[in-house]
């Protein structure tokens, strides 16, 4: 089995959209325009490809994005710098095989050289103890709760400290910036001025 974690490409978007909208009630549905927003603006948008098949994806955004997710906005109001995991989706055929942990290791490597916190939320209604346990064992702590809208589900807002960031900031970011090596590079995001700037939020399942 050949596994690759790579930045999303435009030709992946139809498959990503189908995978997202088949994921069930813990993942908010997307339309093509909403997915295009992520393609053009997400700081982290990577897919897992196994033997040529799309097996999953993870989308994360840093602070300062024009994004109206109530959970993203909660973190923006409470923390000056963070990376927010908007959603992770794993195809049914590849669940419970550790792919979620691989994604979280990868997004942590992305985040810890840029921000001090990695954030996300999990549903408490309905509560999924597998998801709660996954995040707890990966170092996330609850920093708040809120309801998504007047009739939406209650969510637990989670944050994970990234202790490597202090060293990176003092050694590199406060001076000449990160070294120019491929694994530290930002993803190349195509930006089109006619793309809507605000989109709805999504949830996650490892």
UniProtKB/TrEMBL annotation:
Keywords: Transferase. SUPFAM superfamilies: Acyl-CoA N-acyltransferases (Nat). Residues 3-163 form the N-acetyltransferase domain. This is GCN5 family acetyltransferase. Residues 184-206 are annotated as: Disordered. GO terms for molecular function: acyltransferase activity, transferring groups other than amino-acyl groups. Residues 186-206 have a biased composition (Basic and acidic residues). CDD domains: NAT_SF. It comes from Dyella japonica A8. Pfam families: Acetyltransf_1.
